[in-house]
Fold each of these.
Amino acid sequence: MPPENTSIVIIGAGPAGIGMAVELLRRGITDFTVLEKADAVGGTWRDNRYPGVACDVPALYYGYSFAPNTAARSTFASGAELLDYFQGVASANDVLPHVHHGVEVASAVWDGTGWDVESTTGERWHADIVITAVGRLHRPRFPDIPGLADFTGLLAHSAQWDPTTDLHGRRLGIIGTGSSAVQMVVGASPVVEHLDLFQRTPQWVYPLADEPLPEQVRAHLAASPEAARAAYDAIEKQIAAAADAMVNGDQVRIDERDDAVRAALAGVRDPELRRKLTPGYEIGCKRLVVSGKFYDAVQQENVELVTEGIERIEADGVRTVDGVLHRLDTLILATGFRADAFLRPMRVVGEDGVDLDTVWADTFTNYKSVAIPHMPNFFTINGPFSPGGSLSILTVIEQHIGYVLQLVDTIRAQRVAVVPDTDRTQELFDEVREKATKTVWFTGGCQSWYLGADGLPIVAPLTLDQLREDMRRPVLDDFDITPLPAGASS
């Protein structure tokens, strides 16, 4: 079957894909297609629906700058509220007619005139430009624990949880202690009969309170775009200051953060439990878990923190290395994601038949997180080395979108192929990676998704001002720009 021709293919309909589609439509560009593997838009907020799921960035700021999220009922929006928000933005801006659901991309191959994109079911598209918006935390990581298949109760990864499941009266086990696990302990402990939290590595927890937003405040923000934008800007200023402190080593602000974290932990009454909850690495080495309720929840009588290693999973529970069988009827794997997978298992082949797996054989070499050598007219939103460790990911997404749109304009106006120069890419990449190795992410003594398989950072230490300057305008001298053959359709 011949491919469907389109100017632009966007892969993914989460926050990044929706944002890119909205901005294309605002420019009057309508000949684009969004390919989404799931049956609805929304990305991570469509997938993650476990008990207690929420965002750890203030709701008024965790949204697009052109549409501040004024509907959340508290400081931090629930997952359901965020799904409503992103689906609402997609609907209100006429993105949905461009989305093809149930389409997982298997390959994208450059043929000299454009990209042949093929799905796992054989559907094909030919596009001048491919923009990937697949996110970094969407491929679940399953633990290598013997006996997982032997468990006869309800077993699910946190990203595959069915929200209609009734947890009342259940004996629940949660493996993992990252943000998802912490939120689940808070959300599930009031209703389950018993909860075992299996911890390998404790987390530092920042105690931000999740306060209700009064109805009159929400109504005012919804009715006044100026007020909503002012609130958005005020929160951005606070987040930018925190990023500045982390990147530039502002010890006063860092000490203030650390004091708050340690004071929250000191509130755990039982000294032995407090000891078990105390990490052995520096604060900030991993992304801080944000919760003002976790330490209270983990001290409830029906909650047990299990720090003994897991020997195996059995039919009716988890057996730890001390021989104890923790009897359970429900087990949730809060074991994170394959953040280092990025575009995989998608096969991407660029100019001269160069495979992306070859380009990324050693590490995720890329140009400013948005472009890749040997891959003409192929762009990544929130790609490798995005500064997700210090800034809101929505801020990063919007900055990347603005930058890529300028390259899209160049490609369409001049009918050219644009690809980052390999040597310049390596030079800039090495600078960023060298800077990242001086951060607490690398020196703080922990393992996290901030580090790649080689043990080196895969996030960039940028302040908001640095990100904006980086994304302000493409330096076209950093790219190889060649005319497309006659007949190409840009």
Amino acid sequence: MATTAEDPARSIPVLPSPDIAATRDFYCDELGFGIVGPEMDDYLIVRRGEIESHFWKSDDRKLPEVSSCYIRGGEVPALHAEFSARRVEKLSPFTVRPWNMKEFYVRDPHGNLLKFGCAPEDI
């Protein structure tokens, strides 16, 4: 059994998806995530390094348009450079916001907003 130091508690977003297969394709093919666990029609877990996201099947197509998550850390600048090189659609500029976080955003095909950020002094 893993100790708490090896497996610390963390918060993981669980976002809605009207099409699990399209979500899988976007996160794996466009953003470089890998699938965790069994593939199911109504639930998906993807991970890239320490970044993990879960998706549940939702028939309400408006839910993803009002859902988001925040990913913070030192690897964020490298992610923006990689996503730019991959020509990820709906990728915002990487800029310092009024709240003093350097951030960029990505919208997935269904509208979920992924906000990536780091403190400007961490760059």
